Amino acid sequence: MGKTLKKLKGEYFPYLLVLPEVIYLLLIIIYPLIFSLNLTFYKWTFGLPFDTKKFVWIQNYLELFSDSLFWTSVAVLLKYAVVSITLELSIGFGVALLLNRELRGAGVMKVLMIVPLTITPTVVGLAWRLLYNAQYGMINYFLSLFDIGAVDWLGSYTLAFFSVIIADVWQWTPFMILILLSGLQALPEEPYDAAIVDGASSWQVLKYLTIPMLVPVILIAVLIRIMDILRLFDKIFVLTFGGPGTATEVLSLYTYRIGFVQSHMGKAAAASYILLFIIVGISFIFVKLSYKQIEM
Amino acid sequence: MRHENKKLFVAFYVYLLMLIWILFSVFPLFWMVTNSFKLPVQSFAIPPAWIFKPILTNYREALFERHFFLFAQNSLIVASFSTLLVIVISLFPAYSLARFKFFGKKAIAFWILCTCMFPLIAIVIPIYILWNKFGLLDTRIGLIILYTALNLPFATWLLRGFIMGVPPEIEESTMVDGCSRIGGFFRTTVFLIAPGLTATIVLCFIFSWNEFMLALLLTGVRSRTLPVAVTAFMSNRGIMWGQMCAAGTVIAAPLLVLATIFQRYLVRGLTLGAIK
User: Fold this and answer.
1) Which of A118, A138, A234 is closest, CB to CB, to B259?
2) What is the Cβ-side half-sphere exposure of residue B272, based on CA atoms within 13 angstroms?
3) To pair with B268 at 20 to 30 A between CA atoms, which of A159, A233, B70, B131?
């Protein structure tokens, strides 16, 4: 009897330790997600009692697909993700390479680098709004020193998109730098010694040694950024609120507007599910890619 | 000789590039902080007022006339308690996933990681309805429950990595002395992963301190947190720059302190979480 109890305990113990967290996540994350999936098939006006909802099959999805603003927000989001991650990755890689030599003051640089990462996104938004101000902003002041006239950074339809991206690059490039730097520092030394013996140029070393060995780290860093950037909301909320027009309205902000401003909760839930599918889809591709790379 | 010169030349450019990056990195915050000490006339002066007599009017107006301390208290309570809960809940599964072999372990670990992938906007709608039903709207507890859930996957994953870095023999040696497995863990390994634990705590705290969307949609005046409060300085009539910068500085200050003190741990936490 005592023996079986002990054996049972031994078998179930690991599950027992995991159980509370799994239950917590099921209740607070998974249950609401299922609730939301159900809601995507209903029409319900925000503010009215919840019983007034009406089952409408897939009408919410059809309405979304025929709404050009929905497609704009998807396009803005994807464009935003591609441009900002490309910039963050390339600048981050460059700076990481620079920092990966014996450099005096590298420690101080690391501290200064981690600061933007920790700052509240809404505060980042307001700090950049101050800089971008068309009349009194510092950026326009610096430009005026070179005789460049006032630029409306956040008010112009084409520029606003890039202005928001610069703020993002400012905040998140350090993340790339730190991850790539620790990736670089974890690389084995032998291949490099061999390359030096073979007389390889530093460009060849970078192209044929460093980058291929760093690919797994790069993929993971990009994946983390993708998952974060696709749900972007706070910074844009403060900087432009999606404007001017819908120039910077990403999918989260569109969903917010449909649900909490225009009160079409069912339609908003459907939009949030499409965002969920976009994130899952892209992440899936990346996980596949990185497994392939690691196996190689 | 020529080689030496070339080396100096390269070093010069490396430092120059680094300097440019650091100026770019520091300037936006520097400018916000200096503006918080300026009169409106000075904030909008062209050419900018580099040297000026600092005033505290903005702080007085931002902090004392707009319930700022209530919001700061909310932020502090929500961030601290959710962090505490996260650590208490996630240490056990992290230990289990790091140390035991059992059926479905990989699947469970992966499932936990996946639960932090979904977009927040997808749960804020159902949560609004549910919180309304249970009377959790505009309460700190409502936010604490949510932030705990959002931080759990990340914390579990990080702690699991840190625990795996400690050889299990250390715990087993205490088991010989009659300690249970878990007892051994809390007597030895917990102390050995202290840096990792600190990184996890600080990162969870920062996340909860900074969260905006849920706080915006699920709180009213009673439980509003600082990231939402700071946006209240923007209105249709214009932006109160000085006060907003003062509030922004106060919100960012604890983060600056945490980032400086725990810099080494944070880098480890961020990168280990990504690489392992």
Assistant:
1) A118
2) 25
3) A233
Confidence of residue B273 (pLDDT cuts 50, 70, 90): low
Q: Are residues B31 and B117 in the same domain?
A: no
Question: Given B47, B244, B267, which is nearest A141 (Cβ)?
Answer: B47
Helix residue ranges per DSSP H, A40-67: 59-65
Omega within 30 of 0 (cis) for the link into B93: no
User: Which residue from B152, B227, B263 is facing A122, i.e. has the nearest CB?
Assistant: B227
Nearest to B48 by CA among A153, A133, A170: A133
Instruction: Examine the domain organization and report whether B214 and B235 are in the same domain.
Output: yes
Amino acid at A282: I
Model confidence pLDDT, tens digit, residues A242-287: 888 888 999 999 999 999 999 999 999 999 999 999 999 988 888 7
**Which residues, 6+ apart, have CB-to-CB distance to B98 below 8 Å?**
B159, B160, B161, B163, B164
Question: What pLDDT is attached to residue B73?
Answer: 95
Q: What is the pLDDT of residues B64-106, one digit of tens each?
A: 888 899 999 999 999 999 999 999 999 999 999 998 888 888 8
- CB atoms B259 and A273 under 8 Å: no
Domain that holds residue B184: 61-275
What number is the average pLDDT over the span A165-169?
94
CB A182 within 8 A of CB B275: yes
CB A123 to CB B35 under 8 A?
no
Instruction: Enumerate the residues of chain B whose CB falls inside 8 A of the CB of residue A110.
Output: 263, 267
Residues B37 and B75 in one domain: no
Q: Measured between alpha carbons, how far is B50 from B56 in angstroms, rounded to an integer?
A: 17
Is the distance from CB of B181 to CB of B169 less than 8 angstroms?
no
Chain A interface, mutation test: which of B21, B39, B182, B202, most A Cβ atoms within 10 Å? B21
Which chain B residues touch A122 with a CB distance below 8 Å?
212, 227-228, 230-231
ipTM of the complex: 0.90
Q: What is the CATH number of the domain that holds B79?
A: 1.10.3720.10
Domain total for chain B?
2
How many angstroms separate the CA of residue A264 from the nearest CA in chain B? 11
In a shared domain, residues B48 and B140: no
Regarding whether B6 and B106 lie in a shared domain, the answer is: no
Averaged over B33-47, what is the pLDDT? 83
In order of start, what are the domains of chain A with their CATH numbers?
Answer: 69-295 (1.10.3720.10)
Of the candidates B26, B115, B259, the beta carbon closest to that of A29 is on: B115
Is the CB of B115 less than 8 angstroms away from the CB of A30?
yes
Task: Say which DSSP state B236 is in.
Answer: T
Mark whether B139 and B230 lie in a shared domain: yes
